[in-house]
Amino acid sequence: MAAVHDHDIAHAHDHHPTGLMRWLTTTNHKDIGSMYLWFSFLMFLTGGVMALTIRAELFQPGLQIVNPEFFNQLTTMHGLVMVFGAIMPAFVGFANWQIPMMIGAPDMAFARMNNWSFWLLPPAALLLLTSFFVPGGAAAGGWTFYPPLSVQMGMGMDMAIFAIHIMGASSIMGSINIITTILNMRAPGMTLMKMPMFVWTWLITAYLLVLVMPVLAGVVTMLLFDRHFDTNFFNAAGGGDPVMFQHIFWFFGHPEVYIMILPSFGIVSEVIPAFARKPLFGYSSMVYATASIAILSCIVWAHHMFTAGMPVTGQLFFMYGTMLIAVPTGVKVFNWTATMWRGSMTFETPMLFAIGFVFLFTIGGFSGVVCAIVPIDIQVQDTYYVIAHFHYVLVSGSLFGIFAGAYYWLPKWTGHMYDETLGKWHFWLSMVFFNLTFFVQHFLGLAGMPRRIPDYALQFADFNAISSIGAFGFGLSQLVFLAVVLKSIRGGAKAPAKPWEGASSLEWTLPSPAPYHSFETPPVIR
Amino acid sequence: MSQEAGHGDYYVPAPSTYPMTGSIALLFMGFGAAFSVNKLQLGYGLLTIGFAILFYMMFVWFRTVAHESEGGKYNARVGQSFRWGMSWFIFSEVMFFAAFFGALFYMRVFSVPWLSDLDHKILWPDFINEWPTAGPGITEKFMPMGPWGLPAFNTLLLLTSGVTVTWAHWALKLNKRGQLKIGLFLTFMLGFIFIGCQAYEYGHAYSELNLKLSTGVYGASFYMLTGFHGFHVTVGSIMLFVIWCRVLSGHFTPENHFGFEGVAWYWHFVDVVWLGLFIFVYWLI
Q: Do B96 and B199 have their domain in common?
């Protein structure tokens, strides 16, 4: 019996089609992971070009490059593309590559569905991006789709709604796959509390995704029906309430921001111990902190809506709930710091990005606590302060985590060491230009510059010019990353099975590049 | 190479064109739906093609899974994966309905009372806080859908179907194939009768109660909640029918019948959602 199975598996793995058909039909977690990562990089560049167009327009006061309608489409689509096209698929790419290798599994639990989860993304992206060319243009009400604006817009909004549905289906299938893989396919002896931190954070992220993506699907469905089928969910004349949309949307949206940061927490929790050559400080407290963040994230959504009209008791509840999240997040930051304390540290590129993450994410966390305070939030609501805050957590948080992970695992994926010099260039350029872009936006916001407006008062001119220069520098720096990745794929120093002496998880027991099928014989964890 | 507790023989399927087929289907459906809701002729065609491809994909994909299962390719650990997968899928469905129930509670507890409060007297002086309501700006008269006629009968239908599917499950476990066939047949027939009753109820609501999708928040929540539920009953009944056909062609054993279990779980989920609907949409008005 076993022999029959062996034959099937060997057949399934070794005689895969070549060329385009390999990628279209693959059931291999590494192929699918690579597709996710390349797709997300492509979307990162797409969303980046939109961001640079926005920054070019904002380089000087007055209207120069785009008209206001198109500007609004750009801010909306930049948000949607970066959130659903770049950050989330990148994390799923990491999950696909790493989770089976880190828990000692042969592949993902549902290999065919895994392929579908990925291949749903290109149609969704196509719907989003081609919506620029339909009458009325792309959705322009902001990535949050607030009615009544979103009820009034043209066909682009419908295309965005259906794109959300498709991407939601992709996320839910991907998450179910990840949860099942983690719960059911761990190597013998790997108890839950022995799992690598990256696997833990993804387990909790996937849980959050299954929890909130259907709610997003529900609320955009209500929007679709308000738009085309005469319902009155968000229309006060029919007894509904536009603010209800915001409540349901942010019930999805707030856990979503943790969905976009928890896997980065996991990556950083792998990278810092490896380069500090010490085990992660406070592993179990890390697990509990991650779980606490996930639970708290579900009961703080209305802090996005302090100015939308809410009873004071509601404001107090959501303010204190939000500030409470600083506690488990603080646990994490202190644990990373304590891991580095008296470690034998070296500063290769993954470590640089991880340390950059800890510094800058913490700044973003602090400005988050500032925004959580109702009287302050009423001042900074919808200003560049909020933009600065969430780019500190999303770019120097999520994205730097992604870069840290990419450099950390590139030797395992490609079999070659990446170019350390170029990697360091990438880090320092990103670090400098990122802060140049977004640090000044704190001042702009505090001074009252509103977001999502293509023009501004003259006193904001200098900071905006600095921010735009920083943005172009940051955008161009990312081409260095592309160069590093391509170089590492094409050649370079041969990577040993374990290029980082402090690394300890299971993937480093496999040769580099990792073989097409990871663990046919599960390793035994002591 | 067989391990004690290992998964060296975990079935990893060969490369497959089904996922790609499904993605092409959704590409057509996405554009088709976006064009259709904007009344573009092209949209209906695209939508039809998309659905056709999707149904084809689902047919061949599920058929393959059934054959793989009957062919003994799935070990116990694969079965465990399916169980986890189905559980989490049902959880995601629960959250989908939670969004609509949440909207219903928000309307009843917040938005409708607020619209009748002192702040809104200038705008709508005559609006009073009551449920069901079509809202302050919609003056067309309507009648609400009461619970004790057809909805109560529908509750009985679904609760009975929950019993018959459990009976069928026990019959399958005890290898009594005759009872299994009857139990499953009764279950999906009850499901289809339920759908027929719902269709009749909608007709009644539109023609005699003047209760429409556009009847303010009451109409919106009534039709969206019962509509999505009805859609799920339809899907569940088709799933039960497919399982019944598989039983007729000799599939499933007392030990190995995940396909049956997954559908039964789904059916119970649909049943429980209905109880929520019966209480909060029909009864408490």
A: yes
Q: Are A362 and A332 in contact (CB under 8 A)?
A: no
Tokens of A345: 């540290």
Mark yes or no for CB contact B8/A233 under 8 Å. Answer: no
Clarify whether residues B87 and B189 are in a common domain.
yes
CATH number of B210's domain: 1.20.120.80
In angstroms, how far is CA A359 from the centroid of its own chain?
Answer: 18
- DSSP secondary structure string, A123-162? HHHHHHHHGGGSTT-B--STTTT-TTHHHH--HHHHHHHH
Interatomic CA distance for residues B233 and B195, integer angstroms:
7
Q: Is A5 annotated as catalytic?
A: no
pLDDT in tens, chain A (526 residues): 333 344 444 444 456 788 899 999 999 999 999 999 999 999 999 999 999 999 999 999 999 999 999 999 999 999 999 999 999 999 999 999 999 999 999 999 999 999 999 999 999 999 999 999 999 999 999 999 999 999 999 999 999 999 999 999 999 999 999 999 999 999 999 999 999 999 999 999 999 999 999 999 999 999 999 999 999 999 999 999 999 999 999 999 999 999 999 999 999 999 999 999 999 999 999 999 999 999 999 999 999 999 998 899 999 999 999 999 999 999 999 999 999 999 999 999 999 999 999 999 999 999 999 999 999 999 999 999 999 999 999 999 999 999 999 999 999 999 999 999 999 999 999 999 999 999 999 999 999 999 999 999 999 999 999 999 999 999 999 999 999 999 999 988 999 999 999 999 999 999 999 998 888 788 888 6
Measured CA angle at A252 (ends A246, A254), to 5 deg = 85
Q: Total structural domains in chain B? A: 2
**Claim to verify: residue B216 and residue B181 sit in the same structural domain:** yes
User: From the candidates A451, A452, A487, A517, which is the catalytic residue?
Assistant: A451
Domain with residue B6: its CATH number is: 1.10.287.70
The yes-or-no answer on residue A346 being catalytic is no
Task: Give dist(CA B17, CA B48) in Å, integer.
Answer: 21
Q: Which of A8, A213, A239 sits opposite B111 (nearest CB)?
A: A239
Instruction: Output the CA torsion sign for B147, B153, B158, B159.
Output: positive
Q: Do B63 and B80 have their domain in common?
A: no
CA atoms of B241 and A364, how far apart (whole Å): 54
Q: Is A98 left (phi over 0), alpha (psi -120 to 50) or beta?
A: alpha
Whole-angstrom Cα distance, residue B105 to residue B149?
24
Q: Is there a contact between B213 and A231 if contact means CB atoms under 8 Å apart?
A: yes
Q: A50-78 burial, b if ≥16 CB within 10 A, otherwise e?
A: bbbbbbebbbbbeeeebeeebbbbbbbbb
- Tell me the C-alpha to C-alpha distance, in Å, between residue A420 and each of A56, A265, A499: 32, 23, 13
CA–CA dist A378, A409 (Å, integer)? 43
Looking at the complex, report in whole angstroms how far the Cα of residue B164 sits from the nearest Cα belonging to chain A: 30
On whether the CB atoms of residues B25 and A27 are closer than 8 A, the answer is no
The CA distance from B175 to the nearest CA of chain A, in Å, is 25
CA distance A155 to A210: 28
| Burial (CB count <10 Å: 0-12, 13-18, 19+), residue B182 | middle
- Select from B9, B33, B112 the Cβ nearest to the Cβ of A239: B112
What is the reported pTM? 0.95
B96 with B234, same domain: the answer is: yes
One-letter amino acid at A440 equals V
Structural domain ending residue among the three candidates B74, B106, B132: B74
Q: Which domain holds residue B224?
A: 75-283
**Which of the following is catalytic: A165, A186, A227, A254?**
A254
Pairwise CA distance, residues B116 & A233, whole Å: 17
